[in-house]
Amino acid sequence: MNTTLVIMAAWMGSRYGGLKQIDWFGPNGETILEYSIYDAIRAWFTDVVIIIRRSFEEQFKQVLGSRFDDKIRIQYAFQEINPVVEGFDSLPVREKPRGTGHAVLSAKDHIKGNFCVINADDYYGVDWYRQMHDWLLNNCKENTCSMVWYILENTLSENGTVNRGVCKVDSESNLTDIEERLKVWKISETMAAKPDGEETWLESIVSMNFWGFHATIFAVFEVEFHKFLKEQWTIEKSEFFITVPPNQFVKSVDKECKVMISNDKRYWVTYADDKTTTQKAIKALVDEGIYPENLRE
Fold first, then answer.
1. How much is the pTM?
2. CA 37 to CA 41: how far, in whole Å?
């Protein structure tokens, strides 16, 4: 069975100040993207699809080269900023992509089996790729999806606000609701908040865009994307988030999303000042022997 790792990498990184997806974080210039692919290989994924803007293609290919070609199949999918969408003849011209949910739809034609979706600029750790791959092989069905969730406190940046999907789960670790909250920051030892003053407990669970899906989920993405376009097509910076389709999916009585719990501190790069922290974390993993000294050899 094909199992595909889908990596979302189509944004510019305005808060970071450049293409963080191909900036270096490892001791020999490795990108987080390379560590993700390396972890996917060790977890026995068969394919990788990297979602980028078409204008980024040569830069990504120069960074990755051919070093993984004999271990896993890598393809590129293109998230067009101004896509042609059936039923919408005059969508407003935009300067940024229409969100992570639209990114997933952009990869549809490249995916033949069950798949996992991650962010290009997040380090998740090899164990979670293995657990997700096991779920995709043994438990993924048309009426199921899955996600790895994190503790909010372990995902906040010291350098600015972040966006997080705050989750609710039932007693059997099934997702019941997820709400995308924008510009969240820590305000006390127990609480975080967003600009409108709404507060969230630091021990709340959140999505970091680590999802597992059956290929039939694309039908849900398409319905929700069309709904998004009808409701928000005139709003210049509106985004269709990846959290929307699974949130609608679990509202059906015969559908469920299994939540896998991570107590790990996740490393990411939202701001330029996040880079040093993530570089140190990866260097420590190299020193522990979790990764080779030079991933590019």
1. 0.93
2. 6
Report pLDDT digits (tens) over 258-269.
998 776 666 767
Task: Output the CA–CA distances (angstroms, integers) from residue 125 to 28, 91, 208, 270, 281, in the order listed.
Answer: 19, 39, 13, 18, 11
E strands present in the chain: 3-8, 47-52, 73-78, 114-119, 122-123, 144-151, 162-169, 175-186, 191-193, 199-201, 205-213, 256-262, 267-268
* Structural domain total, the chain: 1
What is the domain extent for residue 210? 3-287
Task: Note whether residue 221 is domain-resident.
Answer: yes
Distance of CA 214 to the CA centre of its chain: 16
Question: Which CATH number characterizes residue 29's domain?
Answer: 3.90.550.10
Residue 297 counted as domain residue: no
All residues at 6 or more sequence positions from 253 whose CB lies less than 8 Å from its CB, including other chains: none
Residue 268 lies in a domain: yes
> Hey, is 121 helix, strand or coil?
coil
Instruction: Locate 255 and state its tokens.
Output: 């559908």
pLDDT digits (tens, 9 = 90+) for 118-146: 999 889 888 889 999 999 999 999 999 99
Structure confidence at residue 199 (pLDDT) = 94
pLDDT, tens digit, 9 for 90 and up, residues 35-44: 999 999 999 9
**Is 295 part of a structural domain of the chain?**
no
**In terms of Cα–Cα distance, which of 190, 191, 164, 194 is closest to 179?**
164
Amino acid at 108: K
